[in-house]
Amino acid sequence: MKEQLRVSNPPPKPLMIWDGECHFCRRWIERWREITAGEVEYAPFQEVAERFPEIPREQFQHSVVYIDKTGHVFVAAEAVYQSLRCRRSQKWLWWSYRHIPGFAAISEFGYRLIARHRGFASATTRLLWGGNVRPPTYFWAHRWFLRALGLVYLIAFVSLWIQIDGLVGANGILPISDQLSLARGEIGFKAVWILPTLCWFNSSNTFLHCLCGSGVLLSLLLICRIAPAISLSVLFVFYLSLSIAGQAFLGFQWDILLLETGFLAIFFAPWQLWPRSATAAAGSVSPVAMFLLKFLLFKLMFMSGVVKLTSGDTVWGWIDHSFHWSALTALDYHYWTQPLPTVFAWFADKHPEWFKKFSVAFCLVVEIIVPFFIWAPRRPRLIAAGLLIFLQLAIAITGNYCFFNLLTIALCLLLIDDASWRAVATVAGRGSKDNVRIAAVNDRGYNYAPLAALIVTLPLNLWLCYTSLKPEAEWPKPLLMLYARIEPFRILNGYGLFRVMTKERPEIQVEGSADGIDWISYEFKWKPGDVNRAPRWCAPHQPRLDWQMWFAALGGRRQEAWFENFMVRLLQNQPAVTRLLARNPFPDKPPKYVRAILFKYQFTTSEERRATGAWWKRREIGEFFPEATLRR
Length: 632
Description:
The chain has 632 residues and is α+β, with helices and mostly antiparallel strands. It folds into three domains: 115 residues, no CATH class; 351 residues, no CATH class; 123 residues, no CATH class. It is built from 29 helices and ten strands. A four-stranded mixed β-sheet has the order 2-1-3-4. The chain has a four-stranded antiparallel β-sheet with strand order 6-5-9-10, with helices on one face. Helix 12 packs antiparallel against helix 13.
């Protein structure tokens, strides 16, 4: 074994010596200086080489040299790893260098390769990082992500509050008290674990309003940065309770995305009543919590893209056995078959075919490939953030997906580091001093709670991503058992909007009659009805009955058990339910009969729109719900 070199006059503090004439070294030494946070001194060999005559000058020219307080000398990759031992989060690198076979050899080979091509390495560094390669800090992202999440919670609670009576109240379509009584009668005490909701204690309309109102108050506290971690914890419990109580009306992917994001954000938020200090707030950020939220964004986008290709629906694009790529025709249908299109969807539907195919390909690239750049250096990461945000804005313009797009954009904020915002502020003429003070405390926020969450959830999340690639894969029994325990709390979920594209648009027209001869239509607030009424914009509010009507038309009334209850409430003229509609044609006396007719809708062409003024065209295709009346 080769004897390690020592110097006779060791420095009082560990010293890293580098080539002061190397542009590549100069950039990366700044990064190392921040990582080691004052534990290591740095000096160019042109200034200090004479102090250590035991070290050949050629060695200084070929690699960095690290001298510890005992005088031991380390060079090249070993010197780099040795300098990082002072940071707890980086010690694994030194351990790997010492104990993992092949790790040291690969590290030294990589170091020599870069050292011999410093010019290329410097150009690559500038291309990927720009002029600043120091470890990124996320004070701005930390502050505004939590505020954006508070805004999303506020929207979700307010939107649900104005509908809750008609959906699941005592006289609503699916009363939660009935659901809980049925669950308790069938499965006993286990129902509390399967349906974790505070409504077990009280399921009255008053309690439902208290949950919504308290959610609004806590959301405002989170926006104002008052007790953020406590607010997030209670917000999660309240929204989970309402999601369970909402049954079919709160089973959308953005509802579970909000719960999963809100749960992980608890580990991301500072546990302080009022985090006034910028450094205190940023210093409480765990890097593990940041990783968990970024991985959620990765999982959301990656799964949403991959399931489109693995579903077998050729409109998204499919590679057959002869490696022929099928036509990308999803947008030939999407704009007019999506649940609640906006008026801009009508215009987007008139785009030329080549542009629609390009848009589908762009969507798949952004959803499948771009998420990997979440983990890339600054410039690719910022480009990824821009593309992801652009896709969400494009989706939001043409479709009413309530708070889904806003929540996804909030997650994208975590990809934008302080240096990037400081550059924007400099261009705008506004400086920011937040970043200067944060790097030194950023590592102190590490704690074990997010690490425990990572250990439990990462294997399940990886398997969920794998199942999006291999839908037929069987779950390993240990993972399946763990997932079954977690699943009721909706803190770990799979995603995949529009796995299979709907190619027709059936719409239900509900009608009532006082005599069984003359029928009058009930008009909904947001879903298509009158063909001359332009598609409306309701996001970020979600009219949950209108959304469920879309699913009912596709699945049939036998698959939507709530629809018969809805018709009963119309026969009873229940105000809580009729308030969910745009117009009740029987304001004074309930109808004697109700029925539902099924139509097929499609956007009009530009020529048809100019000739008739209609936005939609439709044709009747049959009965959806037969004529019915209440028994005496």
